[in-house]
């Protein structure tokens, strides 16, 4: 383990916390029942475990347990939200508003809906990654049925003004969806105070298992209608059929419970680690911080680097640190990140970028090693480049 690179890619995924794994284990072999089995104790104990996670998630976001629909993750939750609302509300209108820096699991369902005749407005972002609320105001139309704006960005960590957006949508009776995959357990979320009508969650960004997520769907004031996208046994109040994955659900609940209990202290600790990393890296010339300096996730540092090739930078960092050079979902292709391009960066800057995702298990010593190594790599690449140019 010790000579593997230091893991700093917590926006892509996080390891399962040992406490989470311990909570999950009994539900694989001993308490393996189907939560939908109502005639025996095997079913009852599984159902009780599922109910407990529903209660934990509901309490975490100020919702009620019946408003939590389990899914396989945030990708499925986003698809269910966007397509499910489009299908349920199209008699009222076919216009949807979203943002250029959203995750592909929002942008691609919207693109698909466009082929069915829906009209999509994709708002740009300002140079700091935040949307301009005046532009949102101007984008509203009488036939707008849905606004989808993410709570925290997976690449540059910026936190959109969710409460303000929620209020604007509520004033106009437009459904407000937010993708909170990066936000749950990291920043306070309150569906009442923020006027959120529907919200996507996932466990694996917050030290829970992969393959489990949830969709919060508001039941009153207003009651959100949702057309199911997966039909079958009528699980999850008919909105998402399929046998519930009890061990993963138990892990999800435990992960959120731990994250909430530790949120305040962990936010402070991560902010210090990020500050330390930024203070060291920004001693170099030509290093740019991507995204708003303070309105961002504590563990996120996204930088663009002048005067180096993106692929060479990525290769140079690899032995020491596991970081991402774009969004994890598209970093297999060497194209500039669409999120950074949306900030108005030139392609060169957008391409030579590093996303550090600092998490629960990173230490101050690791951050110092990473900072020194990144600085050395950047300096060496710049030097090579100057030599080549002089020749
Ligand atoms: C990771 C992520 C997703 C996808 O979540 P999965 O649970 O992996 O499907 C969606 N949106 C955002 C913002 C994410 O960070």
Protein model, in words:
The chain has 391 residues and is an alpha/beta fold. It has two domains: 135 residues, Alpha-Beta Complex (Aspartate Aminotransferase, domain 1), CATH 3.90.1150.10; 240 residues, Type I PLP-dependent aspartate aminotransferase-like (Major domain) (Aspartate Aminotransferase, domain 2), CATH 3.40.640.10. Helices cover 39% and strands 13% of the residues. The chain has eleven helices and twelve strands. The strands form three sheets. It has a seven-stranded mixed beta sheet, with helices on both faces. Strands 9-10-12 form a three-stranded antiparallel beta sheet. α4 links the parallel β3 and β4. α2 runs parallel beside α7, α3 runs parallel beside α4 and α8 crosses α11. It starts with 5 loop residues before the first strand and ends with a helix. About 1% of the residues have low confidence. The structure holds pyridoxal-5'-phosphate.
Main features:
binds pyridoxal-5'-phosphate, 7-stranded mixed β-sheet, alpha/beta, 391 residues, Aspartate Aminotransferase, domain 2, 13% strand
């Amino acid at each position: 383990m010790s000579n593997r690179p230091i893991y700093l890619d917590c926006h892509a995924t996080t390891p399962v916390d040992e406490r989470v794994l311990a909570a999950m284990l009994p539900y694989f072999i001993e308490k393996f029942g189907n939560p939908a089995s109502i005639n025996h104790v095997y079913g009852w104990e599984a159902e009780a475990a599922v109910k407990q996670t529903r209660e934990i998630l509901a309490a975490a976001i100020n919702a009620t347990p019946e408003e939590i629909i389990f899914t396989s993750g945030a990708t499925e939750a986003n698809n269910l939200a966007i397509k499910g609302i489009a299908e349920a509300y199209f008699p009222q209108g076919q216009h949807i508003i979203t943002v250029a820096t959203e995750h592909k699991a929002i942008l691609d369902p919207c693109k698909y809906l466009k082929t069915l005749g829906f009209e999509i407005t994709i708002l740009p972002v300002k140079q700091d990654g935040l949307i301009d609320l005046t532009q949102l105001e101007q984008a509203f139309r009488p036939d707008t049925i849905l606004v989808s704006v993410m709570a925290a960005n997976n690449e540059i960590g910026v936190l959109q003004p969710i409460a303000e957006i929620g209020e604007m949508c509520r004033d106009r009776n437009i459904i407000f969806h937010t993708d909170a995959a990066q936000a749950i357990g990291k920043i306070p979320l309150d569906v009442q105070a923020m006027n959120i009508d529907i919200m996507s969650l996932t466990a694996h960004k917050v030290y829970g298992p992969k393959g489990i997520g949830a969709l919060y769907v508001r039941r009153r004031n207003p009651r959100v209608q949702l057309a199911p996208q997966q039909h079958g046994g009528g699980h999850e109040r008919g909105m998402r059929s399929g046998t519930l994955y009890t061990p993963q659900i138990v892990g999800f609940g435990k992960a959120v419970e731990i994250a909430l209990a530790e949120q305040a202290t962990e936010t402070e600790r991560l902010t210090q680690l990020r500050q330390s990393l930024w203070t060291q890296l920004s001693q170099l010339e030509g290093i740019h911080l991507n995204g708003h300096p303070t309105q961002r996730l504590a563990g996120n540092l996204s930088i663009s680097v002048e005067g180096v090739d993106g692929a060479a930078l990525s290769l140079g960092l690899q032995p020491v640190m596991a970081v991402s050079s774009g969004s994890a979902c598209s970093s297999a292709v060497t194209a500039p990140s669409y999120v950074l391009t949306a900030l108005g960066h030139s392609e060169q800057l957008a391409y030579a970028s590093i996303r550090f995702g600092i998490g629960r298990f990173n230490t101050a010593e690791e951050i110092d090693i990473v900072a020194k190594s990144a600085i050395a790599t950047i300096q060496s690449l710049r030097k090579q480049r100057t030599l080549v140019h002089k020749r």
